[in-house]
Every structure is written in C-alpha cells, then in structure tokens.
Amino acid sequence: MTVRWPLPKQDYWSTPFAEALLQHLDLFSGATILDIASGHGIPAFYLAEQVGQTGRVLGIDLSAAQVARARAIQGEQLPWLRFECLDMRALPPEFTMFDRITGNLSVMFFRPYRFEVVQGLVEHLKPGGQLVLTFPSLGTFDSLWRRVDQEMAVRGLLTERRRLEAYIAERPSAEEGRGWLERIGLERVVIAEYPLEVVISPGREFLYHPLLRGGFLDDVDECFEDPHLADLVMAAVSEDLTSVQPLIAQRCVLSGWKTQPVKI
Ligand SMILES: C[S@@+](CC[C@H](N)C(=O)[O-])C[C@H]1O[C@@H](n2cnc3c(N)ncnc32)[C@H](O)[C@@H]1O
After folding, report:
1. For 76, left (φ over 0), alpha (ψ -120 to 50), or beta?
2. CA of 95 to the centre of ligand 1 (A)
3. Ordered structural domains, the chain, with CATH
C-alpha cells in the first residue's frame, strides 16, 4: 500500500520520536485510537490512514491554534479522523474507550501529577488495549546542562546552579515511566530508549535553534532572575560548544497493555 500520509521527513524532532512510537505500537485496520498532545497531527494522520475508514482516530490538544492547524492540513480528507481541543490531563468521565492510546512527545506535559495523568488515560483504554507514549527522558541533553552549569560555576552563580539542578532532576526518567505503568497494572510493559543526535553549530544558530529555543533554552533562562545575565551566560556557552557535542536526546517509549478479563 502506498502511504499517502507518511511522517514528515524534514521534521528532525517529532518524526524520530514518532518512529520510535510506531516501532512499539500494534496497529490494526479498524482500530479506534486516541492520540493525545496531537499537535498538528504527528502521528495522527499516519495512524488514521493505517486504521482505514472502518477505524476512528481522535487527536486531542490543549492548544486551539494547534487544533486549527491540524484541521487545516486535514481539510476534507480522512473523515474518520477528528481533532478536538481537550486537556489530556482531565478527560471527561463520559469519554469513550479506545483500542489504542498514543501520545508522541506528550509525557513532559503531564506535570505535575504525571502518574495520575497516565492512570486517567488508562481508564479510557479498552481491556486488551495498548498505551504507547514517548518523551525525551532524563539524560536528554546532559552535555548541554553540564556546559551551562560550568559557565554558571565560573561566574559564582549559586542560586542559578541550584535552579538548573532542580530543573534537570524534575524531568522524568525511563525507569520512572516503567514504575507508573507497572503500578497501574499494565501488562507486557516495555520501556525503550533510542538516542537521537541533534546537530548544532556555535553562535546565534545555537541560541536560536528552533528545537532548543522552543523549550529547552527557555527553561534555562528561567533559572535566572536577571535576563541580562542569562543572555551573557548563554552567549558564552554558544561560543564554546566543544564539550556539548554530540548533543544527544533520549527518545523514550513507554508501552503497556490493559488486562483482558478472563472469559469463563
Ligand atoms: C511537543 S508537541 C507534540 C505534538 C505532536 N504529537 C508531535 O509529535 O509533533 C506537544 C503538544 O502537546 C500539547 N499539550 C500540552 N499540554 C497539553 C494538555 N494538557 N492536553 C493536551 N495537549 C497538550 C501542546 O499544545 C503541543 O501541541
């Protein structure tokens, strides 16, 4: 079958995470899928094409702009796929049940009650259904955090260093993810991590790197009271990236199956 809705090749962040997700997802024609944190449709469009018109895919995202963007891409195509504006952390109790729940680059937005969010999602999984989530796990960009910390240390920035340390420690690990799935009682739990190198160049290109700026570097800025100081530190880091390279993200996949009741 020719794939008309492949994962976008030019996307160097969402697509590699979605590839890892698909490697663990058991897809079948006619499946009903809830895709959380669906953004502009990675991997919802791909999933919809694969389940076919006898299936159903619902992509949900908190951002109305993302939902509008996904709907604009969709137009009149794949009518069994819908995008809705909904908070994945608080699904309405009357919400339907799905064969599969997927969430590419989703877990980092489960803060602060991550376990409870996973538990809430599993309530909407049919018995025998599969949950597959991805996120950049603890260890992601460690070389960058070490470099930023070094630059802070040189300048004697104790408060900023403590904040950076707290930020790094707060990010969930693959093992924490395993703990959630096992505690909920999912079966055949598989936790996998796949490294991904993010190519960086010094100077402005680093400081305005679309991936790093859209999250990670903004988080570092929040470790500073003084935005001017943040600019100075990050400018120094951006000029000496020797110890940062290679910059590696960990693509973590959490997969588990809801227990099927035993037929008597
Ligand atoms: C990193 S993007 C991933 C989008 C898409 N799955 C992809 O792989 O490109 C994360 C998405 O989660 C959405 N999001 C954040 N918090 C959310 C929440 N509480 N409920 C639903 N979506 C949320 C954001 O609006 C954003 O579109």
Report:
1. alpha
2. 19
3. 14-137+172-197+249-257 (3.40.50.150), 142-168+201-240 (no CATH)
